[in-house]
Each structure stands twice: as C-alpha cells, then as structure tokens.
Design goal:
The complex is a heterodimer.
Chain A lengths: L1 E9 L5 E10 L4 E5 L6 H8 L7 E6 L2 E2 L5 H6 L1 E5 L10 H5 L1 H5 L4 H14 L16 H13 L5 E5 L7 H18 L2 E6 L2 H7 L2 E6 L3 E6 L1 H6 L4 H7 L9 E5 L2 E5 L5 E3 L11
Parallel strand pairs in A: 3-8, 3-9, 6-7, 7-8
Antiparallel strand pairs in A: 1-2, 1-4, 4-5, 9-10, 11-12, 12-13
Helix pairs in contact in A: 5-6
Chain B lengths: L1 H11 L10 H33 L3 H12 L3 H12 L4 H24 L3 H9 L4 H31 L12 H9 L3 H28 L3 H6 L17
Classes of the chains: A alpha/beta, B mainly alpha.
C-alpha cells in the first residue's frame, strides 16, 4: 500500500505541481493517474521512488515513510518503466534487463539467466538478447523496458506513459500484454497516462487529475463512467460529447450500438466470463 | 620551390639527424613535451569537465574562462612565465597546458551534455548511484566527444610547442629559430614540415580513437551500419 499524506510539491521556479494531495494506492492493483499536461501526474509518480522529493507532506510504502529510506536502495526495489524505454544505448538487451539485479549484487551469469526468462515473460524472442536497443523496434524496446522494470521482482511497478511513443496498434498489443502480466504477477502497478481510454482499460483504480494535482475523481472505471462527479470529469471522459452514452439502433443488417451523435460504436453481444479465453 | 627541395634535402640528410641538436633528438623532445602537456592538461580538465557535465552547473564560468584563456597569446605567456621561472622547459609547459585546457574541458563536458537526458534519468530511476551514472553511462557515451577535445588540444600543442625553443626548451622549434637567425630558410621550412607531419600523425591517431570509442550499441544505431535486417532496425538511436 502506498499512501500520500497532504503532499505538496513546489518546484524552484515557483510552479506548484501538486498541492495538498491525499491518496491511498492499494496493493496488488493497478492505479492509473490520468490528466492532461500540468496535472502533476508524473511528479506524483516520481515522488514514490524519490526521483522527486515532496516540499511538504509524506509518502509511505507499507507504512514506511519513504523520506527515511535511502533513495538509491528504494529505487532498486521499485520497478520503473518510462516513455522511450530509457534503455542504455551501449548496453545489449540482456544487459539492460539484468541491470538492477547486477546492481543488487546478483552474479552476472545468474542475472543473465533470469533476464532471458524475463524476455519470455514479456513476449520477446531470446534471440534479441544480444542486440542493442537501437536495433529493436519501438514496441520491442518498450517490452525490454518492462522486462527491466520487473527484473528485481519488485512489489511496485511505476509506469510513466510507457506506451506513449508507440503506434496505436503496438500500443493496443502492449496494453493487452500488461493486463496479462498483471494477472500473472500481481504487482502494485502505478501507471501514468493522458489517455482516458488507456486508463479505463488498465486501471482497477483510476485517479482523474486537474491542473496542480487536484483530484477530480477517484474510483473504478465503472464508478467514474456511471457517475462523473463534475463537469470536468464528464468532459474528460467524453461523456459530455455523448461518446459514452450508447443506445441500440436497428439497422437493415442487425442491431448496433450508437453514441449520442449517432456514430456507430459497436455491437451488443451476450456477456461472457472476462477470464475465458 | 627551391627552398622546398632544399628543405627535404635537409630532412633526408643523415648528417642532420644525429647529435644533440639533430632531428632525432628534437623530434623526441617535441613529442615528449607535447605528450607531457596534454597529459597534465587532461588531468586537470577532464575531472573538471566531467563535474560540469554531470552536475550541469558552472558551464557559463567554464565557457567565459575558456574564451578568455584562448585569447591569451601563447608567445607572450611563455615570455612572461620564463621571466619569472627562468629559461628551460617549465615556462613553455605551463603556457601550453593553459593553451590545451579549454579544448579538453569543452570535449569533456560537451560529451556528457550530448547524452539524452532521459537515458540519464532512467539510469538514476532504476537505482544507479551518481558515481555509477558517471562511470557506466556518461563516461562511455561521452568518450568520443572527449577524444575530439583531446584531438584539437594535441594539434594546438604540437604546433605551438615550437615556442619551447624560444626559451631554450628544445624541440623542433629549434630549427625555426636557428634558421631565422641565420637566414637559413630551407632549415626553417624543414622544421615546419616536421611539425606539420607530427600534427598530421596526431590527427590521424585521434581520428581513429574517436571512431573506436563510439560504443557498439550507438554505432549499431547509426544509419550507415544498418545492415542485417533493415526492417527491424531503427535509423535513430533511442
């Protein structure tokens, strides 16, 4: 469990990124911070592993105040996945993945063995192990980034717009992959995005942020969709524009769902168990 | 044209190679002084440059300072220092170190600066200490630009080390000053040719170093070496 207690972050240039922020992030669930630029979502994420220190307030992980922990040691037990993968260009894929275990003193040979297993986990061919990041596609690099984040088997995985720089098809693939991973690995995932559809797809708990780290609404995707607390949220999730207000319309070729402006949005099918594949 | 032929005759005359004032001894002296100067300058400039590059502070001071130092006339500096420390190698070595520092300093910090900030941020976020960021990330990625700095410093030092002879410090400058005093232009030209040859050799040496210090993964990302499966390689290094 990660707990923010009246956290404020003021940058030296005077910008207040986050003001008096309170939130509990439950363990073994995916929490998504979603908001536009300037909403402080990345700042919030980076305060968890002390890449940014709060100006006031406290953050605790399982009851332990992070300000009492040594930042380097703390970061080594928290997985971190960022946009553009952040891989070292002069390290081979396998070395990038094995980074944190090696920093933690795991013998190189064993770390590399485990890294190969992780490539399987994230759906990468083992033959890519000896390539350099520049020889991989954007989607493959991002998978390597996820593998590196998982390498030390952390309880917490921080993901900062990890799929922001890949094309929509690859992004959809990676999202599905992350859902599968999360079902298998059961990590506490904190995910940052500006894409509300991504937030609803991945999040158990979705935190919608307004400028300055102000919480507009916290809840499960269904709670937020069913009852947006205010106009900002309604606008943000697209309810305002009728994007999420679907109705059935009969057409010559069968019944379809349309949004409030009459655009086709899908079809209605009998419910299936979500885990049946 | 005659001077040129005579200059080469001077260089290839075995009689001019031996002895304490011969080409052999002066070549070695020249190389030794240049090497010593570059090593001393590097020992000062590289740590400072890395510190500036890593912390991102002090750059404006370094730029202004380097600009000022670059404007100093080395001959004047040699003379002034020689007046206080006396004739010999000390004065030219100090003056040449001053000359060499700005290039090496610029190479060291610009090498660090040229690295994608996100790469360094990620290195920190996965739990590298500041020292590990310098040694495992910034140093290998910044090495080619540092080599570039050493390259231009060496070039300047080799060509300016001729001034050592002005205060009795030896080196190839001896041929220039002797030739000037005795109106022996072929000898002057011979000295110049030898200095040019040394400078070109140094350029070639550092050009190779600059190339080989580019890390394999970075080289693999360059468009020229995309060979195996072009469809899977990205033209830009992430």
């Amino acid at each position: 469990m990660i707990e923010f207690r009246s956290v404020t972050k003021k940058f030296p240039d005077g910008t207040v990124a986050v003001r008096d922020f309170d939130l509990v992030i439950p363990s073994r669930k995916t929490t998504v911070f979603v908001g536009s630029s300037g909403s402080g979502k990345t700042t919030l994420l980076r305060m968890i592993n002390r890449m940014v220190d709060p100006t006031s307030g406290s953050i605790s992980i399982d009851g332990e105040d992070t300000s009492t922990l040594e930042p380097v040691a703390l970061r080594r037990r928290i997985g971190y996945v960022m946009q553009n993968s952040g891989l070292l260009p002069h390290f081979k894929v396998i070395e990038n993945v094995a980074t944190v275990p090696i920093l933690n003193g795991v013998p190189r040979r064993r770390a590399h063995q485990e890294a190969l297993t992780l490539l399987d986990t994230v759906g990468l061919d083992r033959s890519l192990a000896d390539r350099y990041p520049s020889q991989l596609s954007g989607g493959q690099q991002q998978r390597v980034g996820v593998a590196r984040g998982l390498a030390a088997d952390p309880n917490i995985l921080l993901m900062d717009e990890p799929f922001g720089a890949v094309d929509p098809i690859v992004r959809a693939e990676l999202q599905v992959e992350l859902i599968r991973l999360q079902r298998d690995l059961d990590k506490t995932v904190v995910f940052v995005t500006h894409d509300i559809d991504e937030a609803f797809l991945l999040g158990d708990q979705v935190v919608i942020l307004e400028t300055g780290g102000l919480i507009a609404q916290v809840g499960s995707p269904s709670e937020i969709m069913a009852a947006p607390t205010n106009e900002f949220v309604a606008n943000f999730i697209g309810a305002e524009r009728g994007k999420r207000a679907l109705s059935i319309r009969s057409t010559g070729s069968g019944d379809i769902l349309v949004d409030s402006s009459g655009r086709a949005a899908g079809i209605l099918v009998a419910p299936t168990a979500p885990d049946a594949e | 044209m005659n001077f040129l032929i005579e200059a080469f005759q001077f260089i290839f005359d075995p009689a001019n190679w031996g002895g304490s004032g011969g080409i052999g001894v002066r070549l070695v002296e020249h190389l030794w002084v240049s090497l010593l100067v570059v090593v001393i300058a590097a020992a000062i400039a590289i740590p400072v440059g890395f510190l500036i590059g890593h912390t991102g502070t002090g750059k404006s001071i370094a730029v202004i300072g380097s600009g000022g130092v670059r404007a100093l006339p080395t001959l004047g500096l040699v003379t002034v220092i020689a007046l206080s420390v006396g004739i010999g190698l000390t004065a030219p070595i100090i003056a040449l170190v001053v000359l060499a520092i700005p290039s090496i300093l610029a190479g060291a910090y610009s090498g660090f600066e040229a690295i994608d900030r996100r790469t360094i941020d990620a290195a920190r976020a996965v739990g590298r200490t500041e020292w590990q960021i310098v040694t495992a990330v910034e140093l290998p990625l910044g090495l080619p630009l540092l080599m570039g700095g050493l390259r231009s410093a060496s070039l300047q030092v080799i060509s300016t080390a001729t001034l050592a002879a002005y205060v009795g410090g030896g080196g190839l400058g001896g041929f220039l000053f002797t030739g000037l005093r005795t109106n022996d232009y072929p000898q002057m030209l011979a000295g110049s040719i030898l200095v040019i040859a040394l400078a070109l050799l140094s350029e070639g040496f550092f050009a190779i170093l600059e190339r080989v210090t580019v890390p394999a993964g970075v080289r693999a990302g360059l468009p020229t070496s995309v060979r195996a499966r072009p469809s899977r390689s990205r033209a830009t290094a992430a």
